[in-house]
Amino acid sequence: MYYSSQQYPRRGRANWRGYRRGTLGRFPPQEVEDLPELPLGPSINEYNAHEFSKDITRYKSIARITNCSVVASWNWTNARAPEMLIPGKSTTLMCMPPRWSPPARVERLPQDSGDYLRDRNAARYPAHPIEPAILAAMKESPQVCGSNAVDIVACSSTLGNLLRFIRGEEKTFRILVEKVGNTVFLVRRERSPTEKILGVRGHGHTFPEAYTTWNQDVKSSTSHQRVLRYTLGGLQCLVRFEADGYIPDTTNSPEKRTSHLEVLDPSQSTAAALTSAFNTVGVSEVQPANTGDISLKIKQAGASIPQQQIFDLKTRSEWKRDQDTTAQELPRLWLSQLHKFILAHHKDGVFNDVKIHNVRDKVLEWERVNSNAISRFLSLVRRIMDTAEEVEQGKFEVCHMKDHLGLLRFRHQLPDAGSALSPTVRDKWLTLNEKDDSETSASDESSIEAILWDDEGVDYTACSAVCGYCGHCNTVKAY
């Protein structure tokens, strides 16, 4: 999406896992790669967090997340060209997070070292970082996708940044906003797709390397991504997040196949009609419509892991044992709807205090206690949606910058900012589920298959805005 495509050096698993926030122990704040700030467009408006307080009463009764389900999941692999593994009917397991597998003996772990990417999704697919999530969701759960079914598409990072701003935190960020039909896309924007955190220290990478294991069939994986669908304050949202791993089910095999739409709250969902979707596909390699200068390869096989087995992981030095780390992480766990949290304390790299917490009740309590902040957060999200409706092409940028902390600025996007989706995927998103329900399933599934499987049609690899993305320019594909 918002970056020119380029080739990236191949790295080992640790470097590609991405930066784990809050795992630094005694060490000073990490140094970010010194890159120039991307140009800013003209100002539209600016807000402080208190301006959204007037809407607390309006949204307080709906300031919660309901109807949560998993609509898609996939693994990034370490292939040089961007490659996704998504679930499918197969005897092998190609799409699952690493398994929690603590070693039999506790040994001292080395500190993290080296540089780590800030945004793995942008690094792997810079032309359209959010598009892999959309492709996976449209393939696995097309019935709940499309312009008429979804109000907001975002990742937990972008929503988390907006929530942090509302709560008065000083973290800087930039978010590209684009309205596609009735859906508003929020896409994280860094200075470069390969922007790095320099000189990482602590054990936020070496610990999961030692305490989790990729299934043999997914040894090439570098991360596990999931897409949730839930109702947030009356808005239908698709939210992508990266999962740290899963805890095996002791009563059922963790590899047991689950429906692609896994309902977390059965009493509030109509998922029963969707559980048989996409149960007939086999193991294959697929080639979607290309975007930018890099092609995205998709391999389909394997099974899904239930959301209740997914965990988030944080490491801390023993001197932080008295800090309530779990409470600090609850806003993020709320946005990702995670109920398992592993907190590992160490002394000089020896982890003798590792606890698995069931935080479901704490997440619900955080939601209840923070209803005012969530209401202001919803007011901000609605303001973003309204602005996207008003501006030209439905595009602008949300910026919280170092020189104006506490002030959120809406700015016009500059022409080189790009688009949330490639032309083919955008068109599919606009037309998905626009017919009567009786006509939707077969035609929509067929057209999604065309996006994912047809490598003989139009090819946007060499296209640009100059040719209007004609689909007929020639180039050598990057595999």
From TrEMBL:
Database matches in PANTHER family: PROTEIN CBG02620, START DOMAIN-CONTAINING PROTEIN
Top-level taxon of origin: Eukaryota
Higher taxonomy: Eukaryota, Fungi, Dikarya, Ascomycota, Pezizomycotina
Protein name from the UniProt record: Geranylgeranyl pyrophosphate synthetase
Biological source species: Pestalotiopsis fici (strain W106-1 / CGMCC3.15140)
